[in-house]
Amino acid sequence: MRGARRFSTTRDYDIVLFGATGFAGRLAAEYALRAHPSKRIAFAGRDAAKLEALKASLDSDADVIVADAADAADVARVAAAATVVASTAGPYAKFGSPLFGACAAGGTHYCDITGEAQWIALMAHEHDGAAKASGATLVPASGFDSVPSDLGCQLAVRRHVDVHGAAPTRVDNYVTKMRGAFQGGTIDTVVNEITNPTPRPPTPSLEGVAKTKIDWAKGRPFGTVALGGTTRHLSPFIMAGANCPVVRRSNAALNYADGLIYSESMALPSLKAAVTNAAALGVGGAMLRFAPTRNLLRSRGMLPESGAGPSRAKMLRGSYAMSFVTTGANGETTVTRWNGAGDPSCISTTVFLVETAVALAEGAAAAPGVLTPASALGAPLLARLRGATWGEGGDAPVITVDHGEA
């Protein structure tokens, strides 16, 4: 039942943007002020001077909240002031746990842009009960990790049921285009996951996770798939490790189908491109593991520094495309296409995060607890995203979704 607790009449702010002075946080602040000027928004972070500078640069009268992510009293104060906290302060396994727990305990809705699957599982294990008791809905992975995969799979399953009268047995997400650049914070998170992995929770974070089987082998090079009458060559998708567990949790919560098989892979135009992508992921992951090779990559301009990211012009040139192919028990198929305008890690992530926060602030959450984008918001969030544009010279819809032939 929709209509989780709303606090906009009793809390000081509709949305507090935590980590607002970082690269991702600034983008979120800009978009939130531009797209939702009626919302009561505050900027939070640990550096008062940087927060004031952000306000001045955006010509904003938003309040600022000085708070250290590691200080329990500080994050409790942030949670108490907000209807929703939207956090861009990662790596979350390093900096995010106190704020997550404060929101769960304090009845404060929450969303972030993490792609740290093990950390999400740990937070769900530790705080789902408290969130349900307090009425808080917490939605980690509300950026490019993992909104398109999660909502796209949900939409594809529903399309298959509408067309064929039964749920599919398999959903394959083929990423056919990916044009964008990494932020420095993303690299920091990947390095932290590699060098300091989050421990696995002692028990599953959500009943029913066994309902879904992840086909991790689908993206191995040398496989092919026919999409739109064209043969494409398969290769691993860098974000599959973040996205697949989110989709699995959504199936557990929403009961798409028992035994559903889900996969994510790149579907590239040539075998050379597929092999090159796979090799780059393997070599790149190995080089990120060690400080000397990381420093070498940064010295040659191959990795962004912390707090840095692509230029505005480069962000606007970015785009991506996904095709969700569903298959039923008798081989029947449907195709749902999700296309994104703008850099995935910058423009898409920003819009997804802020629109998730606004939806939570307006009471659209289906239930309290530690949920996924699909299980928390689903269709209301999709409707918001379909109507969203970036502005600032990027006036095309941030996403378009349609259905077609394989």
From TrEMBL:
Cited InterPro entries: NAD(P)-bd_dom_sf, Saccharopine_DH-like_oxidrdct, Sacchrp_dh_NADP-bd
Classification via Pfam families: Sacchrp_dh_NADP
GO cellular component term of the entry, any: plasma membrane
Coiled coil (UniProt feature): none
Domain Saccharopine dehydrogenase NADP binding per the UniProt entry, residue ranges: 15-139
UniProt record, GO biological process: glycolipid biosynthetic process
Transmembrane segments: none
Record-linked PANTHER family: SACCHAROPINE DEHYDROGENASE-LIKE OXIDOREDUCTASE (PTHR12286:SF5)
Family of this protein: Belongs to the saccharopine dehydrogenase family.
Protein name per UniProt: Saccharopine dehydrogenase NADP binding domain-containing protein
Species in which this protein is naturally found: Aureococcus anophagefferens (Harmful bloom alga)
